[in-house]
Amino acid sequence: MDSTQPQGRSGGNTVDAPALTGAARRERTRGPTLRVRLVVFVVATCGAVWLSALFDTLQDRDATLLMAERQHDNVAGALAEQAARALQATDLILQQAALLDPDASPAFNGRAAIPDLLRRHMSGVPQVRNLFLFDPARHLHLSSAPAGSANPDLSDRSYFTAQRDQPNLGLYVSEPFISRVTGDPTFVLSRRLGGPGFRGIAGASVDIGYIRRFYHALDLGAGSTIELLRADGATLVSREHGLVESAPSPWLGALAALGHAEARHMTLEHPVLGRARVSLRRVPGYPAVLAVGRAEHEILGIWRAKAWKNVARTFVITALAAILLIAFLRQLERHELVTAQLHQSQKLEALGTLAGGIAHDFNNMLGAVLGYGELAIKQTEAGSPLRRYIDNIVVAANRARDLVARILAFSRPGMGSSASVVLQKIITEVKSLTCASLPAGVTVAVEVPSESIVVAGDASQLHQMLANLVTNALQAVTESGRVLIRAAAVEVDAERDCTVGHLLRARYARVDVIDSGAGMSAAQVERIFDPFFTTKPVGAGTGLGLSLVHGTVLDHAAALQVDSHPGSGTTFSAYLPLAEGQPAQEPAPVAVAPGNGESILVVDDEEGLVRLAEEVLASLGYEPVGCVGALEALRVFRAAPERFDAVVSDVIMPDMTGPELVRELRRLQPALPVILMSGYGGPDLQAQAQAAGAQAVLMKPLAAAELAACLASVLPEVRGRTTPGCPAVPGTRPDFSAPG
């Protein structure tokens, strides 16, 4: 049995039986350590890849912006030089036009020829649309415009008033406006006419459309702009906008940042472009600034596409690494599972070998207890105290026989037979058996409803499961401790996983085994169902009880929840499926078929069992002949083969096995009925028995009724009838299935 007693209760001695070797312990810890190291390595590698990708992406971003800055600077410088040449050419013809003042030069005796001279001067400067002289005081308004064009009053224009009011102004660049002569957007370069006082101006209208077409030939990409600005921020020419706007200039802040510098690259918030990278370059010798810029979002468009490709590539690489990691971890998990299953199978194989070694001797002892107990029952009166004591001895011996069968089947789990079982009856039996050896001061209480709780399962296995849980709880409590067994029908309204098994939405019978012990830690709860694990001191437990409980729970499609904390006791809650119908009534005892004096050869290597079998067979009406060992049986049988009607032989004997003995006997009497007995139903036993010609195999320890029924079934010709209840070997007569 397993105990819920914590390590501190037993002086800190936690024992694994058998003890784990150093290699096994290393194997247990190597898997998680390798898994952690591998995960850390892959995560670190993927993190390094992502950091490298991030670093490269940021570097590409800076390089993209720097390249755009250089491009803008180069374009701004080239356009500033072009603008300087254009303004210089315009200023040159403007100075030449100022010399054509008819009142200042005696060479001109009339004004009629001046417009042609003005047109001749501007013929080599395509950006100039109109060259004119204007002085309203002298009614001077001579223009290169075609004849018949209107000569509006220009005295309100800023280029006229500025020259009039500022004698030393020199060259003046006006703001852009709509020409009254041509109706096109333009700006004017003006100079004062020579002579004393203010004698008017000479002006040149610059074609904004011509310059815009030149700027349009330069493709800097979407979201870009090229603008020729006046020194105060007014836009003279904009590549993007052909209309004259009177809104405040968005370039005032940029020009303020430029200050007295010749050039500067900066980032600014433009009302149209948004956040933009702009290069400013002064037009040499003139009050104008060339601005070339582009929205930062558009500059980074190619970078973003490249960055997404880089992200996708990095994601694919890291995703493949993650997939490989998951695949490796799953493979490692499968390897650990296979290794664990191998260790488990080795443990179960060791358990099977151990059980096979002890089952024979143990069943021999149980056979003696059961046999003499049944003989004693016949000699006592029903209802007497002695009869009650003997009945309890027989019940305990039968439970011990079932326990041996469960140990033998430990490595071959599976529910034996499912039937409707009254849970209260099993709990009552478990309490009756466990209370017989209660420690001093320990009490066991039972709380069950009066209505029968019927569950589906194997009564023997359920009895053993509850007995293990109760015994486990009793071993966990100290003096004045208490164990409570509580049962009730419950409704599970949501699926959930338990410590063992899974609960569905259904009705279950819940059995709680609650102890007032010291409880267990979480680490102990994780291992309590491992075979050979026990928290008890050396020699105080085998570590198999809760392993059997684990198997029984899974065999019954049930669930088990363990709740335990150090210092607060332990609760085992078993959820058993409820049965649909009521349990069948136990059949009335079948009368034991008596013998007719048939001679039965009984063979066993235990003399006590031979003598017991002789007494039992004699009481059944047979004539038994007991032999200790196969060699003695051969000697007796060879002396008179026709004397014997059947043979009942043990399987495992030191000098000769039961199947070997059967083959020797069949050579002397081929039709001889043979029954084999075994305390260990190994996997090859049925094949060996069938090959030897045995009719049936009985599992030790035997009850008188079983032996009588089996003899009656294998002696049909002698008895004239067939009695059911004898497990026969497949392929022989009668056709019953042998257990185990």
Produce a short descriptive summary:
With 740 residues, the chain is α+β, with helices and mostly antiparallel strands. Helices cover 43% and strands 20% of the residues. It contains 18 helices and 27 strands.
Compile the SSE list and pairings.
Elements: E1 15-16, H1 22-98, H2 114-122, E2 128-135, E3 140-143, H3 158-165, E4 172-173, E5 177-178, E6 185-192, E7 201-207, H4 208-216, E8 224-230, E9 235-238, H5 252-258, E10 263-270, E11 274-282, E12 288-295, H6 296-299, H7 301-378, H8 385-408, E13 419-422, H9 423-434, E14 443-447, E15 454-457, H10 459-476, E16 482-492, E17 496-497, E18 502-503, E19 506-515, H11 522-527, E20 533-534, H12 545-555, E21 559-564, E22 570-577, E23 599-604, H13 607-619, E24 623-628, H14 630-639, E25 646-650, H15 658-668, E26 674-678, H16 685-692, E27 696-699, H17 704-714, H18 716-719
Parallel strand pairs: 14-16, 23-24, 23-25, 25-26, 26-27
Antiparallel strand pairs: 1-20, 2-3, 2-7, 4-6, 5-6, 6-7, 8-9, 8-12, 10-11, 11-12, 13-15, 16-19, 17-18, 19-22, 21-22
